[in-house]
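Q: Convert this sequence to structure tokens.
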Amino acid sequence: MIKKIIGIVILAGLALFVVIQLIPFGVNHDNPPVVQDTPWGSPEAEAIARRSCYDCHSNETTWPWYSKVAPMSWLAQNDIREGRRALNFSTWGQGEFETGEIAGVIRQGSMPPLQYTLLHPTAKLSALEKETLIQGLPGSTGGFKENEGNEGKEGGEGGG
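A:
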């Protein structure tokens, strides 16, 4: 009797899994074109951002296999849509991004988020990588490629 119940539960679970694949949310895995990439202050900062931030905060998302299977596809699509809405490195200059706010989020450790780093361990940032990334943000004390008259203080903000 218990084996029969377990079999029914497994079949019902498999049927549900198949049915949710038909729900269209999250099927668009196209990346919009890059309008203007962020003018990073250093190649190191750009490399760190590409490794740890660009999947959710750019139009250069690498869509892993699990992002095509519900319900993970729903979560990935939502996270990427929200990440691009908050900050998109591929549309730099088309919105107002506060470098100080970005730096604060990086320093406090909320970005990259835990649910992302669990699946992408190479995205975790060391303290040095955090500071390199922050210093490489446009308008930061680390410099701006085009400098735009931004004369930053030497040595940063005094701790982190």
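The chain has a mean pLDDT of 82.
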